[in-house]
Amino acid sequence: MKREHMLPKKTSSQFDDGREEELVEFVKSKPNVQGSPPAVLKAIDEFGRTKKYLMNVGEDKGRIVTDLIHEAKPEIMLELGGYCGYSTILFANAQRAAGGKRYYSLERSPKFAKVIKTLVGIAGLSDFVEMVVGPSNEGIRILLVAGKVKKIDMMFLDHYKPAYTTDLKLCESLGLIQQGTILAADNVIKPGNPPYLEYVRSSVEEKRKRVAEEQRKKDTEGFSDRAAKQYGDVEELSMEVKGNPEIVYESRLVNSFEPTGVPDGIEITRCVAVPA
């Protein structure tokens, strides 16, 4: 089933063609947005519906994550991939309302990070959100070394799709995934993420077996060419970090829709046990 939404037609270039800067000016032109996360989000949604398509998490999938935030009340939350700041504003606002302490947005593009920072400022969340600009694996290490993150209470993954598994394994190896950690992974149906789903849904025994066999399959395998080349050429991801196969997860798919009405879903994964 496909929902029908009135949206501008997609072009060959769906991002990084100037639309992000246009979005900032559009939001600034709206009345009563200063200091109001809901008003900023409404303006972003309006731009995406009436002006140019934006690859945001959107209202439907966003509600899945905000409901989870209200339930879990994470003190420390990370997002990998912020794009224009829609998820940043939506989730940081929910986390702050739930009594959280800090929201870290890791965005590889300095251009997009500037957009996020501007819109977060307009929304009045600058004192709660911290930007970390650069590759996600480097940003994760920076936060750990700086002593800012010792445990990830909740993490939203919406960046380079093949890096989902690689970055999760890095977080495991650094001891940032602990009992109670919750992962919310976007786009697991559209465009899909078979390696990530296989990993978080595998038993300890299955993960041990793959490590013992020294499986050397690249994390970019199992993706369409378009997904693997989302930001240009296929990225070389580290194959050295093997994660912690002893960690026990419980994982489930919550079906939803893209802002375009195309079916998609969020994979919700909970860490239920970490060996001492």
Condensed summary:
The protein is α/β, with parallel strands linked by helices and 276 residues long. It contains eleven helices and seven strands.
Structure description:
The protein has helices spanning 19-28, 37-50, 58-72, 86-97, 110-123, 136-145, 163-173, 188-192, 194-201, 204-212, 225-228, and strands at residues 76-80, 102-107, 129-133, 154-157, 182-185, 248-257, 263-273. The chain is of the alpha/beta class and 276 residues long. A seven-stranded mixed sheet has the order 3-2-1-4-5-7-6, with helices on both faces. α2 runs antiparallel to α4 and α3 (58-72) runs parallel beside α4. The chain is globular.
> Strands of the largest sheet, in order across it?
3-2-1-4-5-7-6
Net shape: globular
What's the number of helices? Answer: 11
Rg estimate, integer Å: 18 Å
- Report the sheet-strand fraction: 15-25%
How many individual β-strands? Answer: 7
Distance between the termini: 45 Å
Estimated helix fraction: 40-55%
By helix and strand content, what is the structural category? alpha/beta
Order of helical and strand elements: HHHEHEHEHEHEHHHHEE
Mean pLDDT: 90
Give a short account of the largest sheet.
7 strands, mixed
Uncertain segments are 1-6
